[in-house]
Amino acid sequence: MAESRLVFTHARLFDGEGPVREDVAVVVEGNRIAAVHEAAPAAGDGDRVIDCTGMTLMPGMVQSHFHTGFGPTPSGGIAPSLGLEASAPFMGIIAASNARIALDCGVTSIIGSSNPGGLDLALKEAITLGVVDGPRVLACTSEFMTTGEQADGDNRSWFMQLGNKGLVRSMTGADAFRHATREEVGRGCNVVKISVARGHGSAAAWDVNYLTADELDAVVSTAHERGALVRAHCPSRIGVIECARAGVDIIDHADRIDEEGIEAVLAADATVVPSMLWSERFLQFADSWDHSQAPFPISEGIPETLDQTLARLAAVREDYEYTQTMLPKMREAGVRLVLGDDYGFPMMPHGDYVSEMEVYAGQGVPIDEILQWATRNGAQAMKMGDTLGTVVEGKLADLALIAGDPTTDLNALRTGVRMVVKDGNVVRDHL
Ligand SMILES: [Zn+2]
Predict the structure, then answer these.
(1) CA–CA separation, 51 vs 54, rounded Å?
(2) SS3 of the chain
(3) Which one, 21, 278, 327, 349, has least CB within 10 Å?
(4) 326-370 confidence digits (pLDDT tens)
(5) pTM
(6) What's the gap in Å between 112 CA and the centre of ligand 1?
(7) Residue 317 class from Cβ within 10 Å (0-12 exposed, 13-18 middle, 19+ buried)?
(8) Which pLDDT tens digit goes with each residue over 133-143?
(9) How far is the CA of 19 from the centre of ligand 1 (A)?
(10) Maximum CA pair distance of the chain?
């Protein structure tokens, strides 16, 4: 029995690479893109024909830094809570909600970042079983970090005995990193997250790589031999260089990347997630704060004087201004950049993904390039570039149909999602 097909006709097509083509037809058969035509093909019995006049067809998007368990948060400026105060069942509900929100936005794939209690795995499995709907999930581990670093739950909050139950998992020595990687990848995680330096959140980057070469190599070799990727919270200059050389696949934040780091990232074919929306929002909030009235509420958890707070905020600003000077250099050099940020933090609601794109547009990045980051580059970061991320015959059918033209007006992505197709299935239909 012939399967019914989806036949998109008269579409403006952004295929993930560009240039934009007008009046294109795309045929989806099963879970694949069966054809991309310049003219409308003959429709068969049972085909669903979708007239895309006035709309743009594009690949489903990839959110490449996705914290399933963060949020929702009340408006206002409380410090990031990371969900650790909530029960595991509640966080599972949050994760399902975040997945649904992402799909609503035309996001058909997510690359997990750190999460507590196996949330990503639970979400991935629930989506696979059809219990909840959501994007393709590359499930991430908890955040592996060296003992005693600033986010080590056994450090600042040692008396609460949060230990390894929460978002972070602290350890010392190559064997410990190897063990943790084996354990969490063994449970089904696709991505291992490590934290290699302080910075990017609410404090300046330190020029360190907390992991020894042994520890770094233990994570990367163990993950890779089991088919998993490695991503690093990596705001530091030296961290970028050493992570890229060690084979880390995804460099998060890269606030202090320099020319040597760019070379190392290119040589390693690694991906960078610049995640500049958080920095924008954090600094806007810092600017708006009346420090004479109350202490600034986002801190590293360490008591500080007003002078220390102001110095910390100034140092964060300096990092961000530096990163802005490096963005064009990364682009010019051909670094693979992708979208994704710490959504679910205060001031960063899940679903507000277009705002990150607008930050890059404000930095002079052409919109079609930003959309490449969101689609083709994201699929490449997933190591699925051969099967996903562009609208090409034979690839998996992950598509978003947008009213208007997001290639000239990013706001169309905010208001105009009309249909989302994942793996050939219509998962959102507002036509
Ligand atoms: Zn993050």
Answers:
(1) 9
(2) CCCCEEEEEEEEECCCCCCCEEEEEEEEECCEEEEEECCCCCCCCCCEEEECCCEEEEECEEEEEECCCCCCCCCCCCCCCCCCCCCHHHHHHHHHHHHHHHHHCCEEEEEECCCCCCHHHHHHHHHHCCCCCCCEEECEEEEEEECCCCCCCCCCCHHHCCHHHCCEEEECCHHHHHHHHHHHHHCCCCEEEEECCCCCCCCCCCCCCCCCHHHHHHHHHHHHHCCCEEEEEECCHHHHHHHHHHCCCEEEECCCCCHHHHHHHHHHCCEEECCHHHHHHHHHHHHHCCCCCCCCCCCCCCCCCHHHHHHHHHHHHHHHHHHHHHHHHHHHHCCEECCCCCECECCCCCCCHHHHHHHHHHCCCCHHHHHHHHHHHHHHHCCCCCCCCCCCCCCECCEEEEECCCCCCCHHHHHCEEEEEECCEEEEECC
(3) 21
(4) 999 999 999 999 999 988 877 888 999 999 999 999 999 999 999
(5) 0.94
(6) 9
(7) middle
(8) 999 999 999 99
(9) 32
(10) 73
Per residue in 406-424, pLDDT (tens digit) is 999 999 999 999 999 999 9
CATH superfamily of the 5-59+390-429 domain = Urease, subunit C, domain 1 (2.30.40.10)
Name the residue among 282, 283, 309 with its Cα closest to residue 295: 309
Contact 170, 143 (CB under 8 A): no
Distance of CA 226 to the CA centre of its chain: 22
**Right CATH number for 61-351 from 3.30.379.10, 3.40.50.1820, 3.30.450.20, 3.20.20.140?**
3.20.20.140
CA of 253 to the centre of ligand 1 (A): 9
How far away, in angstroms, is 37 Cα from ligand 1 center?
A: 40
How many angstroms is it from 65 CA to the middle of ligand 1? 6
In one letter, which amino acid is 125?
A: E
For residue 227, give both structure tokens. 């088919």
Q: How confident is the model at residue 42 (pLDDT cuts 50, 70, 90)?
A: confident
Kindly give, in sequence order, each residue whose CB lies less than 8 Å from that of residue 172, ignoring residues fewer than 6 positions away.
146, 147
- So what's the pLDDT on residue 76? 40
Centre of ligand 1 from the C-alpha of residue 196, in Å = 13
Please tell me the distance between residue 274's alpha carbon and the centre of ligand 1 in angstroms: 11
Q: Give the Å distance between the CA of 44 and the centre of ligand 1.
A: 47
Q: How many CB atoms lie within 10 A of CB 403?
A: 17
Per-domain residue ranges of the chain: 5-59+390-429, 61-351
Measured in Å, residue 365 CA sits from the centre of ligand 1 at 23
